[in-house]
Design goal:
Chain A has eleven helices and six strands. By secondary structure, chain A is mainly α. Chain A has a three-stranded antiparallel β-sheet with strand order 4-6-5, covered by helices on one side. In chain A, strands 1-2 form a two-stranded antiparallel sheet. Chain B is built from ten helices and 14 strands. The chains are: A mainly alpha (276), B alpha+beta (450).
């Protein structure tokens, strides 16, 4: 009787230690970096945040490594449930709490993202049941380049990566030899035209308006744009307008129309004169 | 014998070349005809739509019952928008045809605003009827001119592709091309009325055109002083190497545009001649892997704003694009976010340097505002929303509504079906939903199909 009780107690203690070890293990190996993670962030920390929120049942969208609105609301719910300050920013307190109540199999999650698989990461469900391999033959993906660690990207509200690419094509064709600001200015002119009453109301309408851009007319728009053009377009969409609100520009060395010279000029950037 | 073989081969080669050339020519012609047909379609549709537009405005004027007025106005709005699209598909760019286009936009704006209005409560005023009357006359004139051009085009078998050629010529005078000169006439006809003030004022409230750049205050500075300001913004110790000059007549605010280039790094700044405010700053260089989180970068942005003497600013949006963070700030006055005065800051995430700053909107729109207390409480405002929208966050904000009036609103962030996020602006006095925007700030990365 005595010995049995003692044995039971020993077992219980051992169990406690084991549970303690299991519970504390993820805390020590927590992969969150020092970063305070906030809305708009991208990368490994966001993947971990989303995965852990999903593990605990707060986040049910795709784990894509981009801190968007869904992640924001999920984090706020989590903060609310655990009596933390509800600010939608993952600081030390939130990260510690998450790490202590959830597990994170980094290798598994990262592999799914890099292979482009559709997957979830809920706690209490076997991992293999939560993965749907990406179609066409699997494994045939492009492993040549550095695989991205996120499966989504930030875009300015209402724009697709394709819209940005189309504009980048136009900017590259029109202004690839120009300084960076000159390229941003050309992108800004496209956007100013969309807003202007005398031009079409869409980006593609403005770009493909017959005779509006020489690069469109002679096919240079279909050259592959470099990264600079894409960055320039992104800056213009986000609000930068070094052209000063211009809706026309021309190269004084090649411009033949006397009409364009009559427009009120704003400024010169690189080879281009920008005007109203 | 030998001679005949050569002659035979050459003859064969000649036939081959002729055949190939004929095919090429045929193909080129096909493509040219296709292009021509596209232009012709746009042109004939344009004339037809302007004609219908004219008739519809006339019908509206003759209409007595108010019930059918709104659909009629909506129809005119649709036609004007389609006509505008047609114009955009003709090779008229660089040809002064903008007055006609502005005219179409004006009709569109006017009919849209009246079509969506509750005409039972607020019928068309006498002034608006007069304007419609005038728009009717103008549309009639443009219609007549366009029908004339159309007649010439059909009668003389004129080609739009020739217009394209004529325009790409170095010849500055295009008056020998019939289409071009006829369109010039159309433009001259529209010129008389499209620029009239009444389209932009009258019943429409003042737009921000009228308080442009009130935020730019202070003493006039000279170029050297401007360079000192720029050097500070560029984080340089010296003004040597900074080049640039004054803006031209077309600039909406007099500026110094200054730039520098050194060791693969370039910088550009627009500085107001009055007061020496930095309106635009852009830096470009190669960047390394991000080492800084958005949160720390935001602090750098905030510090920079303070250096620029912009205080009481609240961060409203942050986004990471690879190795840069872009932050949107708005001033907050009596707990109200002033969206018209939005400022953007771009921070490098490899070392925390400021890569960009844009305060054009701030200086264009900023002025002393007398903000009234909202008539509705936050609870009353959220009750106006669709039942399916779950309210998550609420702020007071000042936005420009669709008639460019600064309006006090509750900015409500809500989700629908726990899925999509919406930003909803509810008028803080009337409870009207001024604007609803779906938030799509992330997109799945397209996988390269290589």
């Amino acid at each position: 009787m005595e010995s049995k009780k003692f044995r039971l107690c020993k077992l219980f203690c051992a169990g406690l230690i084991l549970i303690g070890a299991i519970l504390s293990a993820p805390v020590q190996t927590s992969a969150f970096s020092e970063q305070v993670i906030q809305h708009g962030a991208t990368g490994d920390d966001v993947v971990e945040l989303q995965a852990r929120l999903q593990y605990a049942g707060y986040y049910n969208k795709t784990i894509d490594g981009v801190f968007g609105w869904s992640t924001y609301w999920a984090l706020r719910n989590f903060q609310y449930e655990f009596g933390m300050e509800i600010d939608g920013v993952a600081g030390q307190q939130a990260k510690d709490k998450l790490a202590s109540i959830t597990k994170f199999d980094k290798a598994f999650v990262m592999r799914q993202i890099q292979e482009g698989n559709t997957f979830t990461y809920y706690g209490g469900t076997p991992q293999e049941n939560q993965v749907k391999k990406r179609g066409n033959g699997g494994g045939g993906g492009s492993n040549n380049a550095k695989a991205p660690n996120t499966s989504a990207v930030n875009v300015p509200n209402g724009y697709s990566q394709n819209d940005i690419k189309l504009m980048a094509n136009a900017v590259h064709g029109e202004a690839r030899g120009e300084p960076y600001v000159g390229q941003v200015a050309v992108a800004a002119v496209i956007l100013n035209r969309v807003e202007d009453a005398s031009f079409p109301n869409t980006i593609s309408g403005v770009i493909f308006e017959p005779r509006a851009f020489t690069a469109v007319a002679d096919g240079q728009i279909w050259l592959t744009p470099d990264e600079t053009a894409e960055q320039a377009v992104l800056d213009a969409i986000n609000g930068w307008d070094p052209s000063g609100g211009a809706i026309y520009y021309f190269n004084p060395n090649t411009a033949t129309s006397p009409w364009i010279w009559g427009r009120p000029q704003i400024k010169t950037i690189g080879e281009h004169i920008f005007c109203m | 014998m030998y001679k005949w073989v050569i002659i035979g081969v050459l003859a064969l080669a000649l036939t081959g070349t002729a055949f190939w050339g004929y095919n090429e020519r045929q193909e080129k012609n096909d493509i040219k005809i296709q292009a021509e047909n596209n232009y012709q379609r746009s042109f004939h549709e344009l004339t037809y739509r302007i004609d219908t537009l004219h008739d519809k405005i006339g019908a509206t004027l003759a209409m007595n019952s108010r019930d059918s007025l709104s659909p009629q106005l909506a129809e005119i709005w649709r036609l004007s928008s389609e006509a505008h699209t047609d114009v955009g598909q003709l090779p008229l760019a660089l040809l002064p045809f903008e007055k006609t286009e502005k005219f179409l936009t004006n009709i569109g704006d006017f009919t849209y605003k009246t079509a969506v209005r509750d005409l039972d409560k607020e019928p068309l005023s006498d002034e608006e009827m007069q304007r419609l009357e005038k728009l009717h006359d103008n549309a009639g004139q443009i219609k007549d001119e366009l029908r004339n051009v159309q007649n010439t085009v059909l009668g003389d078998n004129l080609h739009w592709t020739d217009v394209e050629l004529a325009l790409s010529d170095d010849e500055p005078d295009h008056s020998d091309n019939t289409i071009i000169s006829s369109f010039q006439t159309v433009e001259d006809t529209s010129g008389g009325f499209s620029d009239e003030k009444e389209f932009n004022s009258g019943a429409l409230p003042a737009s921000n055109e009228e308080h442009k750049f009130e935020g730019v205050t202070g003493k006039r500075i000279n170029q050297k002083q401007a360079k000192t300001v720029a050097a500070k913004a560029f984080d340089l110790n010296t003004i040597s190497g900074i080049e640039g000059g004054k803006s031209g007549k077309g600039s909406d605010v007099p500026l110094y545009s200054l730039s520098y280039q050194k060791d693969g790094e370039s910088g550009y700044a627009d500085i107001s001649q009055k007061g020496g405010h930095v309106l635009t700053l852009m830096m470009q260089r190669e960047r390394e892997e991000p080492k800084l989180g958005l949160h720390d970068a935001q602090q750098k942005a905030q510090d920079f704003l303070e250096e620029q003497k912009l205080t009481e600013m609240e961060m409203v949006q942050s986004s990471q694009y690879d190795s840069v963070g872009i932050f949107f700030f708005v001033p907050v006055q009596n707990d109200v976010r002033i969206y018209a005065d939005i400022v953007q800051v771009k921070v490098a995430l490899d070392n925390g340097d400021i890569l960009g700053y844009n305060a054009r909107d701030y200086f264009m729109n900023h002025h002393d505002r007398n903000l009234q207390k909202p008539k509705l409480t936050e609870k009353q405002a959220t009750e106006k929303l669709n039942q399916n929208v779950k309210v998550q966050e609420t702020h007071l904000a000042l936005i420009e509504n669709d008639t460019h009036e600064e309006t006090l609103v509750y900015e409500i962030m809500g989700t629908r079906n726990d899925d999509d996020t919406y930003r909803i602006y509810v008028n803080a006095d009337t409870g009207k939903e001024e604007e609803i925007e779906k938030q799509t700030t992330t997109e799945a990365r397209f996988l390269q199909s290589t």
